Amino acid sequence: MKRFDVVEHTADTGVIAYGADMREAFANAAYGMFSLMADLKQVREETSRYIEAEAGDRESLVVSWLNELLYLFDVEGNIFRRFDILELTNTRLKADAYGEKADASRHELRGGVKAATYHMLKVAEDRGRWRIRVIFDV
Amino acid sequence: MTRWDGPLKKIDDYRWEIPREYKSGMRVPGLIYASEDMLDSIREEQAAEQVVNVAFLPGIVGHSLAMPDIHWGYGFPIGGVAATRVEDGVVSPGGVGYDINCGVRLLRTNLREHEVRPKVEELLSQIFINVPSGLGSTGKIKVGKKEMDDILTDGARWAVKRGFGTDDDLEVTEEGGCLKGADPDKVSTKAKERGLPQSGTLGSGNHFVEVQVVGEIYEPAMAQSMGIEDVGQVLLLIHTGSRGLGHQVCDDYIRTLREAMQRYGIDVPDRELACAPVKSAEGRDYLAAMACAANYAWANRQCITHWSRECFTRVFGLSLRQIGLEMVYDVAHNIAKIESYEVNGRKASLCVHRKGATRAFPANHPSIPARYKEIGQPVLIPGDMGRYSFVAVGSERAMKESFGSVCHGAGRKMSRHAAKRGVRDADVARNMAAKGILAKSASRGGLAEEASEAYKDVAEVVEVCHQAGLCRKVIKAYPMGVVKG
């Protein structure tokens, strides 16, 4: 199954992430975001980070989750390629993310993502298929 | 994308009003500066609806404004300007954006095109090595937590104290490179952590260092005041912002203000318009944190200026005195400022949000450097990397109707993704080389997404502001070499 599609927006870029359940859609949203930043096929799983995110509703939780990952990228330089969502409610998420430090000599690095925004943000379920739409400031 | 079919009432050839009656809840009308030819592309997306949404902000005065480089943003449109009363109005982080104090800085040299052109490649390579750029790049300056607080408090002044540049640079930087009211305690630990490794980095996306040559001079006397004497003179333009630190400040405060908004009983049509009264604890805290991020960005541009100067002296084997590289000016184009204007015949303290808009103060304004008292504040308006950029000066008219603001650049017309589709960096580099422009990018796809086709023609954008009387064109410059983040 397709994990995500890239969405067009005049100044910025977004993704629509898919999943059989909300967990998978959350994981694929993160995968889609890091795909904008690097070719994830070249990224190894050498390190992992435990992440907790909280928010007032499930849409905001998407933003909290993705911005938490961007924070880890800025501070530690880690690009993540696999996400185990350990616990997920509408307001709370616990996950392990796996990846390695970005290395321009081995990785094809693409553009940066400044932040996940609330613009056109949507989490929806339709006949057992979950979709998350999120636009990034790039 | 749905077309926007709302009313645009013609005021004159360059002004289009969205009447308050369009939507109940609008506190003021909207006003878009544009030529008739631009309206069709503006209607292609929902940017005009964002102008309408901004008109809902409590305490907004005058008009909810959009400059001709308007395009669809989040919350505010890019190119949006909104002034709210400090007394009973709100401040909105969405009116500033994630890249707080993203801005541009222009330097002039004593060098001529024929001296620089043979060495552009070497110069770009030096800049590429000495100015950390691209995704995940980390800075050359190691700062500790204590020093980070100094950067956030003192901005470009911190950099000059550390030996990166001179007091003359500060003199011609908006706010002297140090916005007052900064309080590092209002910046989260996470934001500071993001800022630590990125101090003195260019970043990625549309950020760049560009070597330019003066192509046309419209106002010779004004250009002269800026140290720009002749066609063929070489300039340097730097465009970057507050990096991850600013992004985190914006994200933190959108969250805080969304909660606060409920407590204050404020209702706005879009979540990205989260806001709080300017005078509330939350509003004041945001402004104190935003000032920190703005200062971080000024320190950043100051460091990059210093390293760029080093690159020039090395490549040309000349002293800095011989080369020049004095600053013309440095402007912020994503910021909120407390400024004073006349509203309905009375002096009022306003919180002016500029989201992709440049301050454009006229001659004799108390906030501009002595050097420019007679001509007005220089306004730096970069175009896309394949075309040209402009320098203008602010006007009285801008003070009267756009809260001392004009456009900030070309404005995108195509998404990055669409710009990249089927276009390779190598093709873009080749097209640019054919026009005599060398380009170097740290990121794969970095050139393709910034190709000229993705942008409106900045000449049309500037022409609207010039004809509308918001600013006056002084010079036009062409790129010779670009280092992209």
In a few lines, what is going on in this structure?
The complex is a heterodimer of chains A (138) and B (485). Chain A has 138 residues and is α+β, with helices and mostly antiparallel strands.
Describe the protein.
The complex is a heterodimer of chains A (138) and B (485). Chain A is of the alpha+beta class and 138 residues long. Chain A has helices spanning 22-37, 58-76, and strands at 4-8, 13-19, 47-54, 78-88, 92-101, 115-116, 122-126, 129-137. Chain A has a single domain (4-115), classed as Archease, Possible Chaperone, Chain: A, domain 1 (3-Layer(bab) Sandwich). Helices cover 25% and strands 41% of the residues of chain A. In chain A, α1 (22-37) runs parallel beside α2. The longest helix of chain A is centred in the middle third of the chain and has 19 residues, at 58-76. The radius of gyration of chain A is 14 Å and the shape is globular. Chain B has 16 helices and 19 strands. In chain B, α4 packs across α11 (281-316) and α10 (243-263) runs antiparallel to α11. Chain B has one domain (9-484): Alpha-Beta Complex (tRNA-splicing ligase RtcB). Chain B is α+β, with helices and mostly antiparallel strands and 485 residues long. Chains A and B meet through α2 of A and β4, α8, α10 and α14 of B.
